[in-house]
Amino acid sequence: MRETRQHREEQHSYPIRLSEQQWRAKLTPAEYAVLREAGTEPAFTGEYWDSHTQGVYSCRACGSELFRSDEKFDSHCGWPSFFAPLAADRVEYIEDSSLGMRRVEVRCAACGSHLGHVFEGEGYDTPTDQRYCINSISVRLEAR
Ligand SMILES: [Zn+2]
Question: How remote is the CA of residue 13 from the centroid of ligand 1, in Å?
Fold first, then answer.
């Protein structure tokens, strides 16, 4: 009984669902490692950490629009940082206690792919005092 319920929770009804095999076919190995295995790209190596191009960042796995350059700020942490998502329902939050720290994982609400983590109370001079620390490789920027 319990197993059935857990199974159902794992099957969380993302609008976009592909098998692991389909994700592997769709994504490059590096994209797969971050998006589907919750990896982290090395700091200061991604395409967008220092980008000031105006536009919209979409999920690289499914294309859902997630963040805008309007909410991007220079955190100097080595990853693209946003103080808010494009809309609250575009992302979901999962408690992550891997690496012995309590962190909040940010996933794409449309397909469940891993994007990064959100931190708050760090003192950045932004409207929310939150930092959505997002892997460049999880998103794709479409310039305006
Ligand atoms: Zn997605």
Answer: 13
> What is the pLDDT, as a whole number, of residue 4?
44
- Active-site pick, 59, 108, 111, 133: 133
Measured in Å, residue 1 CA sits from the centre of ligand 1 at 31
Check if the beta carbon of residue 57 is closer than 8 Å to that of residue 67.
Answer: yes
Which token pair is 140?
């794709």
* Residue 90 per-residue DSSP state: G
- pLDDT over threshold 70, residue 38: yes
Q: Fill in the amino acid letter for 76.
A: H
This prediction has a pTM of: 0.90
Q: What does the DSSP 8-state code read for residue 141?
A: E
Q: Domains (ranges, CATH) in the chain?
A: 2-143 (2.170.150.20)
Establish whether 111 is a catalytic residue: no
Pair 50, 20: CB distance under 8 Å: no
Answer whether 110's CB lies under 8 Å from 14's CB. Answer: yes
Report how far residue 134's alpha carbon sits from residue 81's, in angstroms, rounded to the nearest whole number: 6
Residues 68-124: tens digit of each pLDDT: 999 999 999 999 999 999 999 999 999 999 888 899 999 999 999 999 999 999 999
